[in-house]
């Protein structure tokens, strides 16, 4: 049995503890880039290559968690036929904003879906062995994507990619600090509001927030301060079983350009 099959079997047998299940109500978990396409995608826009294959109008691309659609635009600019672009995002509010905003009249429809759940991907029309490029730009920072859930996410991506399919991942290198709230605001990382936390956790939201994130809520706190940040080594360990990796970094982010093994 290959490593891939072994891990797949393990996850097929695994059941999340009930209180750990992601809630069906879709709530804000992370802020998103509102104003700028990702610098990593902008570079790919120039070269037309993620790992080694030239992007063409026929390339099948799936964007996971493309906030309000900024990076989808970049693939359209590269000439990818909208019919070949799929986009799924967990936050229904962002899906609505993207479809009524940046993606309106582009021919691309963002759909609500949870990439950590294969059934949810299938319901959004994403089939096994169907994609040539998948992007995962600043999704790994989402606090709930850790441990078993992050592994399921990677396995799902490996499953939906075709043979030699390519994956582009970015992750910030550091959590933001409270002194960087203006910077977070500038790049579109949203504030964590008491209202959202109340909806998410109910009555004891302050205690639950602290329990989950290790720091107390205060007015003005933003999602960048509770990001789940992995080291370079942890990222390599996570993706290495399934992908050949070209590892790059700039001042603020790690960039992994990968090909399915
Ligand atoms: C920090 S934002 C990043 C947005 C954008 N890609 C960027 O680089 O700015 C995280 C995004 O991931 C989405 N997301 C979180 N969990 C997800 C999941 N399980 N499946 C799909 N999208 C998810 C959220 O809806 C949100 O749009």
Report on the architecture of this protein.
With 261 residues, the protein is an alpha/beta fold. It has 2 domains: 32-175 and 229-261, Vaccinia Virus protein VP39 (Rossmann fold, 3-Layer(aba) Sandwich); 176-226, no CATH class. Helix content is 34%, strand content 18%. It contains 10 helices and 7 strands. It has helices spanning 3-13, 39-47, 70-77, 92-100, 118-123, 147-160, 181-186, 194-201, 205-213, 232-239; strands spanning 61-64, 85-89, 110-112, 131-137, 161-172, 243-249, 253-260. The chain has a 7-stranded mixed β-sheet, sandwiched between helices. Helix 4 links the parallel strand 2 (85-89) and strand 3 (110-112). Helix 8 (194-201) crosses helix 9. The two termini are 15 Å apart. Mean pLDDT is 86; it is low at 10-31.
Mean pLDDT across residues: 86
Q: Quote the CATH topology of the largest domain.
A: Rossmann fold
- State the domain count: 2
**Which structural category do the helix and sheet elements fall into?**
alpha/beta
Cα gyration radius (Å) = 18 Å
- State which percent range the strand residues make up: 15-25%
- Tally of helical segments: 10
Shape: globular
Q: Quick one: CATH superfamily of the largest domain?
A: Vaccinia Virus protein VP39
Query: If classified by CATH, what would the architecture of the largest domain be?
Result: 3-Layer(aba) Sandwich
Please bin the fraction of helical residues.
Answer: 25-40%
End-to-end C-alpha gap: 15 Å
| Associated small molecules | S-adenosylmethionine
Order of helices and strands: HHEHEHEHEHEHHHHEE
């Amino acid at each position: 049995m290959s490593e891939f099959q072994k891990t797949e079997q393990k996850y097929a047998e695994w059941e999340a503890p009930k209180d750990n299940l992601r809630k069906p109500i879709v709530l804000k978990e992370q802020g998103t880039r509102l104003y700028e396409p990702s610098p990593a995608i902008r570079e790919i826009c120039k070269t037309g290559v993620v790992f080694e294959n030239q992007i063409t109008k026929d390339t099948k691309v799936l964007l996971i968690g493309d906030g309000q659609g900024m990076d989808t635009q970049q693939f359209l600019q590269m000439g990818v036929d909208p019919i070949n672009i799929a986009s799924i995002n967990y936050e229904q509010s962002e899906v609505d904003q993207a479809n009524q905003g940046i993606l309106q009249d582009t021919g691309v429809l963002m759909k609500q879906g949870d990439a950590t759940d294969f059934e949810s991907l299938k319901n959004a029309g994403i089939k096994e062995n169907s994609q040539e490029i998948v992007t995962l730009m600043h999704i790994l920072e989402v606090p709930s994507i850790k441990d078993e859930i992050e592994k399921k996410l990677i396995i799902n991506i490996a499953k939906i990619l075709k043979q030699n399919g390519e994956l582009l991942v970015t992750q910030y290198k550091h959590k933001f600090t409270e002194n960087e709230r203006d910077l977070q605001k500038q790049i579109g990382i949203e504030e964590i509001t008491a209202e959202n936390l109340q909806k998410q956790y109910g009555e004891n939201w302050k205690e639950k927030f602290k329990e989950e994130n290790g720091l107390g809520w205060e007015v003005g706190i933003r999602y960048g301060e509770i990001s789940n940040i992995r080291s370079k080594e942890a990222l390599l360990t996570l993706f290495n079983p399934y992908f050949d990796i070209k590892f790059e970094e700039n001042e603020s982010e790690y960039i992994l350009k990968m090909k399915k093994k």
